[in-house]
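Q: Here's a chain of 553 amino acids. Please give me its 3D structure as tokens.
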Amino acid sequence: MNLRGVGVSPGIGHGPSYVLTVSVPEPPEGATYTGEAEQEKERAMVALTQVAGELESRGNRAGGEAEDILKAQALMVEDPGLVVKVRSLIDRGLAAPRAVFEAFTKYRDVLAGSGGYLGERAADLGDLRDRVIAVLNGQDIPGLPAAPAEPYVLVARDLAPADTALLSRDDVAAFVTEEGGPTSHTAIMARSMGVPAVVACPGATGIAPGVRVMVDGTSGEVRVEPAESDVADAVGAATARQAALASWTGPGVTADGHSVPLLANVGGPAELEAAVAAGAEGIGLYRSEFLFLGRSEPPSAEEQRHAYRAAQAAFPGGTVVVRTLDGGADKPLAFLPMPAEENPALGERGLRRFARFPEVMDVQLDALASCEGVRVMAPMVATAEEAAWFARECAEKGLTDVGVMIEIPSAALRAADLLDRVDFVSIGTNDLSQYAFAADRGLGAMSALQDPWQPALLDLVATTALAAARAGKPCGVCGEASADPALACVLTGLGVSSLSMAHSALAAVRAGLAAHTMEQCEAAADAARTGSSAADARARARVHLPGLDRLGL
């Protein structure tokens, strides 16, 4: 049996399946309690506190990005609004498990309707709800094998951070989920672990427990009970490919000497070592919001300075681009009150929200200004007026290398106007796709419209790169599109000056660029833009990139 989903973390993984099925029954509707309301409310509060404490503990043991995610979830469990709702429902006579179920379910449904990053967190809230109910019922949450005999393929409808935070590559060969998208926690954790992963894979939980499964995190194919010879061939090809790619070292450059700096996307200090080890030439996207997530108050200027200087120290003399706080809507922050919005992805987020809270902005810009040589860019800029405002705010702090992200079609179409106000631009292909195609980037059903090979998206990239070339200013790409070796060649041919990606993709992209001349990259770019679909664009481009086949890419 073969299944197919969306590959979100490359590589081949194989092993026995472990199907994670969490079965916490819904408390009966209208269930009541005996005894006093205050005792029942206390029982609920104890369960909430216990689950929050367990999440904090797991986060402390996991460290890195997982720690930030789990601490944010701990805050969600004890969210004052949720606590008030639970207590109110108990006052109305509902038993604690039912009160927790109704309060959390309502909150989850609100998040699910928000779309984007916030919509994907709805699955997390369902997991948190079930954990609290399990504690109240004295029920164990089904866990993962403590000491597996061999690495297994973890299969689930969806995976919560609490399930995956403490996993290692020694235990897990691959992830497969029915739900999720490229920005789901499963995808994020898999890429950071270097484990192959496929999401949005219909029928995955129908795989029988214990059967052998092979997962291709590049193509999205999931093969159940593959022949041993097929596994050996796939693993052999993947191993040979990795060995060949590892032989390509040094800076990013085409076969005829055109320089294309290859940079890393990082979420904080914990990811710097891996980026350096992978040969990154600098940081093209430092997601500073990960310093702010999961906190009841923003980090101090000193804490931020320490983080940014650590990035500089990791890449002495190299490029370090820090994106200012990208909070709001899809990345809620406990210390910044959120307005009620029917369409949060189209609301007050990124620079719009940054401007609403000048005290938070001032602290971050002051911290960045103390780090000489750091480049600063603003997220979610729509107009030249917004770009000019951000540039003025930075100039007042002494920041001299200021840019903006191109994530909104209006910014791409009028890139020349924005470049009159700032020193560089960086294209975020994930959000640019979302807004160009009106397709939620976190929704598996919309994955075809999120394909960065879509010709319309390539047109927006070309428009931006041309404006930057005419202005004599840099234009990078820091979305997931950069991680595809073929697309990296096309982006280079479109005139992009640097590429930033997850550290795990650097070797393949470096090898792909080095195998082709600038003329081949330009021919591939022109061919891709004549395509009628993403698949057609990809096929047309690869005709001009023969080195990819030789490299097994």
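Q: Can you summarize the key feature?
A: The longest strand covers residues 12-20.
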